[in-house]
Fold this protein.
Amino acid sequence: MLGDFAPHAAEYLRFLPEILLSLFGIVIMMLEAVARGKRTYLGVLSLVGIVAAFGANIWAYSNSGSAFQSMIVVDGYATFFRGLVLVVGFLCVLTSFSYLERERAQTGEYYALILFSLVGQCILATASDLIMVFIGLEISSIAT
């Protein structure tokens, strides 16, 4: 009975886009602490993280199903909206390069907050439980 609560590898695969976005956000925050000079590479790194999460989203769809005691479900609906959120996040980061350069505000926190907000929105897209909807909404709203 106790072994039923341990997640399987397929469940981590279904949650891989959120894991990748979180890891890239953490790496960007750590690089921000030690960065000197121009920090435009942090924006490029966030774009790479979003593209990797988009690829993981497609890969997760190839192994669709529920994960974590059916708290999230990866199906066509979730894959589409998770992909839509990632494309909008990609465009947001891409269009903010010139604005941040003009305002001389190239900081890694901006990119990390966008990635963490994308994590919450991706959780909202895959949630099948009210608690996961609340968690996704809270994670997404922390960035504001």
